[in-house]
Design a protein that fits this description.
The structure holds two protein chains of two kinds. Chain A is built from four helices and four strands. By secondary structure, chain A is an alpha+beta fold. A four-stranded antiparallel sheet of chain A has the order 2-1-3-4. In chain A, strand 1 and strand 2 form a beta hairpin. Chain A is rod-shaped, with a radius of gyration of 21 Å. The longest helix of chain B is centred in the N-terminal third of the chain and has 30 residues. In chain B, the strands form two sheets. Chain B has a four-stranded mixed sheet. Chain B has a two-stranded antiparallel ribbon with strand order 1-2. In chain B, helix 4 runs antiparallel to helix 5 and helix 5 runs antiparallel to helix 6. By secondary structure, chain B is of the alpha+beta class. In chain B, strand 5 and strand 6 form a beta hairpin. The chains are: A alpha+beta, B alpha+beta. The interface between A and B is large, with 53 and 46 residues.
């Protein structure tokens, strides 16, 4: 068949983009929907990879610490729509008696945010 | 080889420009709205007490110094989208501005922004200018794919015991009846998931589209009326509903409407339909055109007694033709499915027949441009 001879360079670029976009959207949508409850069909791939391993630690007033896997926090949050930059204060409100929240933000860094009530 | 040929057809095909222009304008307006919403939000994010989790250095382009410029450029892009000034550049600016916002706020959960950014970029790639007749089809296809994907995986991710128990809707939807016994919320939850699954597929086949448009329309109106944050949900619903236009068969003059051009009463209706036909999908012809009636095998008495709509090899008459017309215009296609729910068609056909019998066509039909 002479199919390939009909292709022009912009069409090849467009076809590659279309295939990659659909494949990546399907992959990450499947991943997200398997992991997370709530209306969250979308996940940005880089963040998605980071989220899988992120851990939130809650420091209670009595000094005890409690680890909350990210997915569990999201499950608590039910609706799942949240803003990470404002996340610690959300967690503070959720956990009665919580003194501070520690978030594992990268391979070598944990940020501790005191609760401000 | 079949798949390769299909892919080639997809990337080499053209799409009617009018629905894309319509969506471009609506997206531009959504960006203006987003700018108004996020101007104060970014000020809040820049406040010293706000926790910042920058995954990579320099992730945020928005600082105290750049913020006014950032929003000014974004606004210029949004205005460009609305008015069609350098639409590719304007759309790209808006799409990238949204990505910048997501990076700044590290809004991993902001699916609405993610959707808005991709849709804007795809519409930018089409390069739809105000006077364009056709645009590239593949970005339009990807936008449609995104919409289907959103519905399908939203439904998938809601298939969990918590959501289906009704507790989530009872908590989030501000509907008084949901605050009562949980079964109401449970039924609504199951219905929501069923509608989302159905709409994900029904947006594609032409026969099912009116139902999909109606179900999606009612669901999004319900979301906006009952859930928070309303300011963001208005944009989300507008983006989703506007994109339905891209599923519509919008080939120019693809639907032939034959009307009784001896009748002033009918002429008034036809003028209204012409005004609604922003997409230019309707072609109007008078029933006095004998050759046309013969070509489409329409008896004269039928042509004189009711509007005729010929589309996709199928002919509809009277009330059904009116519904078919309403299914194809941008202001009516979302809710025209209501007119197909029993017993509305049965009642509608009777009323149509009665009006058609009793109409007075003494006055000659005012001039209505044909074609």
């Amino acid at each position: 068949m002479a199919t390939s001879s009909r292709w022009k360079p912009p069409e090849i670029t467009a076809a590659v983009f279309v295939v990659l976009f659909i494949a990546s959207e399907l992959f990450f949508s499947v991943t997200a929907s398997r992991l997370l409850p709530g209306p969250m069909a979308y996940r940005w791939m880089m963040f998605n990879g980071i989220r899988l391993y992120r851990v939130v630690t809650v420091e209670m007033a009595d000094g005890t610490r409690q680890k909350i896997p990210w997915e569990q926090y999201v499950a608590y949050n039910r609706h799942g729509v949240d803003y990470e930059a404002r996340l610690p204060q959300h967690i503070c409100r959720y956990y009665t008696g919580c003194k501070a929240v520690e978030i594992w933000v990268s391979l070598d860094r944990t940020v501790r945010v005191p609760c401000t009530r | 080889m079949y798949a390769v040929d299909q892919l080639h057809s997809l990337v080499s095909r053209e799409h009617p420009a009018r629905p894309v222009i319509f969506v471009r304008i609506l997206l531009g307006l959504c960006h203006v709205w987003k700018i108004a919403v996020y101007w104060p939000v970014t000020a809040q994010l820049l406040a010293l007490e706000t926790f910042r989790a920058e995954w990579a250095p320099g992730m945020s382009l928005i600082t105290d110094a750049t913020r006014p410029w950032y929003f000014a450029i974004w606004l210029a892009g949004a205005i460009g989208m609305v008015f069609g000034w350098l639409p590719t550049v304007a759309g790209t600016v808006c799409g990238l501005a949204v990505w910048g916002l997501m990076l700044m706020d590290a809004q991993l959960y902001s699916n609405h922004l993610y959707l808005l950014s991709w849709m804007t970029i795809f519409i930018a790639i089409t390069g739809a200018k105000n006077h364009s007749r056709t645009v590239r089809h593949w970005p339009v296809f990807l936008t449609c794919f995104l919409i289907s994907n959103v519905y399908f995986f939203t439904a998938v991710s809601k298939c969990n015991a918590e959501f289906l128990s009704g507790a989530v809707l009872a908590f989030h939807a501000h509907i008084p009846v949901l605050g009562g016994p949980l079964p109401f919320a449970r039924v609504l939850s199951w219905l929501t998931v069923a509608v989302e699954f159905a709409v994900a597929f029904a947006l594609w086949p032409r026969k099912l589209q009116p139902w999909a448009f109606l179900a999606g329309f009612l669901m999004h109106v319900g979301i906006v009326l009952t859930m928070e944050p309303r300011k963001n949900l208005v944009v989300f619903s507008t983006v989703m509903l506007a994109s339905y236009l891209l599923f519509l068969d919008a080939r120019p003059a693809s639907r032939l409407v034959i009307w009784d051009d001896h009748c002033g009463f009918c002429g008034a209706w036809v003028r209204l339909f012409r005004r609604l036909d922003f997409l230019g999908v309707l072609r109007f012809e008078g029933s006095s055109n004998e050759a046309l009636l013969e070509r489409h095998n329409i008896p004269r008495e039928e042509a004189d007694s009711g509007l005729q709509l010929i589309y996709a090899g199928e002919r509809k008459s009277g009330y059904d033709a009116v519904v078919g017309v309403l299914n194809s215009t941008p202001l009516t296609f979302l809710w025209a499915g209501l007119l197909m729910i029993p017993p509305v068609p049965q009642i509608g056909r009777r009323i149509y027949a009665r009006v058609a019998e009793r109409r007075r066509c003494i006055l000659p039909a005012p001039p209505v441009a044909h074609g």
